[in-house]
TrEMBL record:
InterPro entries: MTH1187/YkoF-like, Thiamine_BP, UPF0045_domain. Residues 3-92 form the Thiamine-binding protein domain. PANTHER family: UPF0045 PROTEIN ECM15. Belongs to the UPF0045 family. Gene3D superfamilies: 3.30.70.930. It comes from Streptomyces rugosispiralis. This is MTH1187 family thiamine-binding protein. It holds the Pfam family Thiamine_BP.
Length: 97
C-alpha cells in the first residue's frame, strides 16, 4: 500500500518547517520506501508498518504543538510492490510518447 499524508502543526505560527522536518525524519528513519514533496510525504509498505510510521510521525509533532492536522490518502492494492516508483514511471512514459 502507498499512503500519502501531511502533518501540520497548528497554533505554532506560520513557520512550520521545523515541525514538518521532525515528522519526515521519522518516515526516513523507518527504512520504508518514501518520497517527500511540497505538500505530502508518501510511504510504501504493509498496512501495519505504514500506519505505525504515520502514527509516530504525528506523535513527534503532537509532542511540540498544541494541535495537529493530518491529511491522509491511501492506495491499498495487494500484490503491488514498488508502486511508489512504478506509478510515476508510467506517467512519465506516457508524457514522453
Amino acid at each position: 500500500m502507498i499512503v500519502a499524508f501531511s502533518v501540520t502543526p497548528l497554533g505554532v505560527g506560520e513557520d512550520v518547517g521545523e515541525y514538518v522536518a521532525d515528522a519526515v525524519r521519522v518516515v526516513r528513519e523507518s527504512g520504508l520506501p518514501n518520497r517527500t514533496d511540497a505538500m505530502f510525504t508518501s510511504i510504501e509498505g504493509e498496512w501495519d508498518e505504514v500506519m505505525d510510521v504515520v502514527r509516530r510521525a504525528v506523535a513527534v509533532v503532537e509532542a511540540r504543538a498544541p494541535r495537529v492536522s493530518v491529511v491522509l490518502k491511501a492506495d491499498i492494492r495487494p500484490g503491488v510492490t514498488d508502486g511508489l516508483t512504478s506509478k510515476v514511471e508510467t506517467v512519465e512514459r506516457h508524457l514522453s510518447a
